[in-house]
Design a protein that fits this description.
Layout: H1 25-51
Length: 54
Amino acid sequence: MSFLGSGSGGGTDGGPGNDPKKPSPARVGIWLVVGAVGVYMLASGVIGIVSGGG
């Protein structure tokens, strides 16, 4: 049972039609979540600085 897909973790063991340089959908989803959290933290920091902090 693997949450991030099948294989040994390399992601390059796919069969025909799989591009080894293309990230898996699970990896794309993880990066979207990480990016969203980063944007939220950056925006909240800028808003805090602009509003005078607390």
